[in-house]
Design goal:
The complex is a heterodimer of chains A (about 425) and B (about 230). With about 425 residues, chain A is of the alpha+beta class. In chain A, about 60% of the residues lie in helices and about 10% in strands. A five-stranded antiparallel beta sheet of chain A has the order 4-3-7-6-5, with helices on both faces. In chain A, helix 1 runs antiparallel to helix 2. In chain B, helix 5 packs across helix 7 and helix 9 crosses helix 12. The chains are: A alpha+beta (about 425), B mainly alpha (about 230).
C-alpha cells in the first residue's frame, strides 16, 4: 500500500486555523440567536459552513498535494457564493432572486466546466514549498467568484451597521470591523496573490482575524445577524368589541394614529370576511404598511415601513400565542390592559429580531413616565387645584417637562384670566336678563 | 447574573431595574437632562452592572414606556399633537375667536369627550409660548389670533361675528355718511341694539362722528380700505 506523504507548511496550518475559525463562526450563528428559523440567516449559515468546508479542503489538498481535492474545494465555493447571495437578498428584499445570483450561477457553471478541463489545477513551487494552485482561466474565475462573495458580505456588513439601533451600535461596529477585515482587506490580499504568492498567507490570516472578530460580535449580540433594513413601528391588540388590550412601540410611527386605529376598527367590522380569507390583510398606506390579523377573539394590527413574509408569520404566531395565553381573560371579556401586560414576553418571543428604535441616539433626551414625574410642590398643588381629572393632570405634567421655562406659570395665569372673563360675562348676562325682565 | 430575558414582568421588578430607575429619578430631580448616555454612565459607576445587562435594563424601561422620549418642544414639534393642531387650525380659519368659541368647536369635533377646559387652555398656552398665536383683550373677551394677523384686524373680525355689526358696517360703506339716529331704520333693526353697537364701533375708532353736532356717522377714512377689504372677504 502506497504511503501518503504529508506536505506540512505554514499555509496548511493557517488554512486549518482559518477553516476552524469559519466552523466556530458557523456554530455560533447556529447556537446564539433566539430566533433561528429566519430564512436569510439560514442561507448565510449554509454559506459559512461551505466556506469552512472549502478552506479545510484547501488545507487537505495542500497537505496531500491532491489536485482533485483542490478542484472539489473550488466547487464548494459555488454553493458558498449562491447561499451568501440568497441570504443577503432575503435580508434586503425578502426574495432570493437578483441579477447577482444569476451571474454567480452562470459563473458557477463555468467554474464547474473549466474545473474538469486538463491543467485547471497544477502542483507548483511557490513560497518555498510545493502547493496545489488554480491555473489560468480557472484561477481567474475563482478569483471573480471570491470577489463577488466578498462584495456581498461587505454589503451585508454595511447594511447591518447602518440599521443597528444605538443600544447595540458598539457590537455592530465590532461586527463591521470583523467583516471589513474578512472581506475587503482579505480580498485585496487575494488579488495581490496573483502578483506574489506570499499574499495568499496574508489573505488567510486576515480571514481568520475577521472571522474571529465576527464570531465575538455575534456572541456579544446575536441580534446583529438579523437586523433588517426596515422598521416596525407599533403593534396593537384589540378584542372583538374594539377595546384595546395591549400595545407596544418599537419606534415613532410614520403612520397616522387615526388611520391606524381607523383601519383596525374597519377590519373588525368586516371580520367574518377577513377570517374566511385566512385572517391576514396587508394595507398599503403612503407612510407604511398595516398588517392586520383577525382571529377568533382578537384583532392584531402591526404598522411597519415594509411588508414582509417574516413579519406576517410573526404576527400570525403572536396572535395565536396571545389567544392561547389569555384564553381565560378573553373569554371573560376582560378589558383591563394591565391584565395583558405579560404579552411583552410574546413580543420578545416573536419579534426579538426587531430592535427598538424609540430613542434614536445615546444623547437623546429622555423623560420619566407621567406617573413618576414630580413637579415642584407649589406648582403641583396649584395645578391640582384647577385640574381635577387625573388623565388631564398627567398629560399637562408630562408636557410641562417638555416645554420652555415659564410655561406652567403662563398656563396658570391664562387659566385664571379666562376663568375670570367667563365669570364676568356670565354675571353681565344675568344682569342683562334681569334688566329685560 | 443573566440579563438575556429581560422583558419579563419579574425583570421589571428586579432590584437592578429598580436601582436604575432610582438613578433616573435622581437625575431628573437634579434638573439635569436625562439621556441614555448619562443614565448609563451614572448607573454603571454606582451599580457596577455589566454593560449588556445595563443596556437591557434601559431598553426594558424604554419598551415599557417608563422612560419616554423627552426632547423639549420646538416650534415644529409642538404641533405634532393632533389636538393642538386642530385648535391652531380653528384659530387660523376663524380669526378673532375667543375661548368659548374654540371650546365649542373642539367639543363638537371630538364628540365632547376630550376637550376639558384645562387641557384646552394648556394647548392655547403652548401655542402662545411658541409664538404661533397671540392674544388680545377686548372688553370681557380674550381673542386668540394667528401670529401674523394684526390686533386691529383680529378685533374687527371679532366684531364682525355679530350680524348687526356686519349690517351697520356694510350700510356705512355704501352710504358713506348716515345720521346716527337713523341707522337702525336703514338696517331694519331695533334702535337700542343698534345704538349700543354704534357706540362700540366709535369707541374702537372704526366709525367717527361728523357734522356740527356730531349727529352724522362716517367710517374712519384712515380705516376705510382695511374695513372694505375684510368685509369683502366675508
Amino acid at each position: 500500500m502506497k504511503k501518503l506523504t504529508l506536505y506540512w507548511n505554514s499555509e496548511v496550518i493557517i488554512d486549518f486555523m482559518f477553516g476552524l475559525a469559519a466552523l466556530i463562526s458557523g456554530i455560533i450563528t447556529l447556537v446564539k440567536p433566539n430566533t433561528k428559523n429566519i430564512r436569510s440567516l439560514q442561507f448565510i449559515r449554509i454559506s459559512i459552513f461551505f466556506g469552512s468546508l472549502s478552506i479545510f479542503l484547501d488545507g487537505i489538498s495542500l497537505l496531500y498535494l491532491n489536485v482533485p481535492i483542490s478542484i472539489i474545494e473550488s466547487f464548494c465555493t459555488i454553493p458558498l457564493a449562491l447561499s451568501m447571495i440568497i441570504g443577503v437578498n432575503y435580508i434586503i428584499k425578502e426574495n432570493y432572486t437578483s441579477l447577482g445570483l444569476i451571474i454567480t450561477f452562470g459563473l458557477g457553471i463555468l467554474i464547474f466546466y473549466v474545473g474538469f478541463q486538463p491543467g485547471a489545477v497544477e502542483i507548483v513551487f511557490q513560497n518555498g514549498y510545493f502547493r496545489t494552485a488554480w491555473i489560468g482561466l480557472f484561477s481567474y474565475l475563482n478569483l471573480l467568484n471570491y470577489l463577488i462573495i466578498f462584495a456581498y458580505i461587505f454589503y451585508w456588513g454595511i447594511k447591518t451597521v447602518k440599521n443597528a439601533p444605538f443600544l447595540i451600535k458598539k457590537e455592530a461596529i465590532i461586527f463591521f470591523i470583523g467583516i471589513t477585515i474578512y472581506s475587503p482587506i482579505a480580498s485585496l490580499f487575494y488579488i495581490l496573490y496573483l502578483f506574489d504568492p506570499f499574499f495568499i498567507l496574508l489573505s488567510s490570516v486576515s480571514g481568520i482575524i475577521g472571522l474571529l472578530i465576527f464570531a465575538l460580535s455575534i456572541t456579544l449580540e446575536p441580534k446583529l445577524l438579523y437586523i433588517l433594513p426596515f422598521t416596525i413601528y407599533r403593534i396593537i391588540v384589540k378584542d372583538r368589541k374594539g377595546y384595546p388590550l395591549f400595545d407596544f412601540d418599537w419606534s415613532k410611527s410614520e403612520v397616522n394614529e387615526n388611520i391606524f386605529t381607523g383601519f383596525l376598527n374597519a377590519v373588525q367590522l368586516m371580520s367574518d370576511e377577513i377570517v374566511n380569507m385566512g385572517g391576514l390583510l396587508d394595507i398599503n398606506l403612503k407612510d407604511g404598511i398595516l398588517i392586520l390579523h383577525e382571529s377568533k377573539n382578537i384583532t392584531v394590527g402591526l404598522a411597519t415601513s415594509k411588508s414582509s413574509t417574516l413579519l406576517r408569520d410573526s404576527v400570525r404566531k403572536f396572535t395565536s400565542d396571545f389567544e392561547t395565553k389569555f384564553q381565560k381573560k378573553l373569554k371573560e371579556s376582560c378589558h383591563d390592559m394591565k391584565e395583558y401586560k405579560s404579552a411583552y414576553e410574546l413580543i420578545e418571543k416573536h419579534f426579538s429580531n426587531f430592535p427598538s428604535r424609540l430613542v434614536p441616539n445615546k444623547s437623546h433626551p429622555l423623560l420619566l413616565s407621567n406617573t413618576l414625574l414630580k413637579l415642584p410642590q407649589h406648582l403641583e398643588k396649584d395645578i391640582q387645584n384647577i385640574i381635577s381629572d387625573e388623565q388631564d393632570y398627567n398629560f399637562i405634567k408630562s408636557e410641562i417637562f417638555k416645554s420652555p421655562e415659564g410655561s406652567a406659570a403662563g398656563f396658570l395665569s391664562l387659566y385664571h384670566e379666562i376663568k375670570e372673563e367667563l365669570e364676568k360675562r356670565e354675571k353681565e348676562s344675568k344682569e342683562e336678563n334681569i334688566d329685560m325682565e | 447574573m443573566r440579563y438575556d430575558i429581560i422583558l419579563t414582568t419579574e425583570m421589571l421588578e428586579h432590584q437592578s431595574t429598580q436601582d436604575v430607575l432610582e438613578i433616573a429619578k435622581e437625575i431628573v430631580n437634579q434638573n439635569k437632562v436625562l439621556t441614555t448616555e448619562l443614565l448609563y454612565n451614572v448607573a454603571k459607576r454606582k451599580l457596577h452592572i455589566p454593560r449588556k445587562g445595563l443596556l437591557n435594563i434601559i431598553q426594558t424601561l424604554l419598551n415599557r414606556k417608563i422612560l419616554v422620549e423627552g426632547s423639549k418642544y420646538t416650534r415644529d414639534t409642538v404641533m405634532v399633537n393632533p389636538y393642538r393642531r386642530m385648535i391652531y387650525d380653528f384659530i387660523k380659519e376663524n380669526v378673532g375667536s375667543h375661548f368659548s368659541l374654540i371650546k365649542n368647536d373642539v367639543d363638537f369635533s371630538e364628540g365632547g369627550t376630550i376637550a376639558s377646559s384645562g387641557r384646552l387652555i394648556w394647548h392655547l398656552e403652548m401655542l402662545l409660548k411658541f409664538n404661533l398665536i397671540k392674544k388680545v383683550k377686548i372688553k370681557n373677551y380674550t381673542l386668540f389670533l394667528p401670529i401674523e394677523v394684526s390686533e386691529e384686524e383680529g378685533i374687527f373680525h371679532f366684531i364682525l361675528r355679530d350680524e348687526i355689526n356686519i349690517k351697520i358696517m356694510r350700510k356705512m360703506v355704501v352710504s358713506k355718511s348716515i345720521r346716527g339716529a337713523d341707522i337702525y331704520k336703514e338696517i331694519n333693526e331695533k334702535r337700542e341694539l343698534v345704538y349700543y353697537r354704534v357706540k362700540n364701533l366709535i369707541e374702537l375708532d372704526l366709525l367717527l362722528n361728523e357734522g356740527a353736532n356730531n349727529e352724522n356717522i362716517i367710517i374712519n377714512p384712515k380705516k376705510y380700505d382695511f374695513i372694505t377689504r375684510i368685509l369683502t372677504k366675508l
